[in-house]
Amino acid sequence: MFGFLRRKRKQSNDQMAQDPICGMTVEKATALKSERDGETYYFCSPHCQRTFESQTAE
Q: Secondary structure of the chain in the HEC alphabet?
């Protein structure tokens, strides 16, 4: 039973991302997203996305 939970958690991690502004875990399929320097970032809300986009790339 625990092996099933571990496999399910690993699959979920591939489908999840962390919002770089607030740290919330979001589903990649439904989250807002932005690209910077060829990397995709995922967000929980328009506020977090705007905050990220207003910051200059370092």
A: CHHHHHHHHHHHHHHEEECCCCCCEEECCCCEEEEECCEEEEECCHHHHHHHHHCCCC
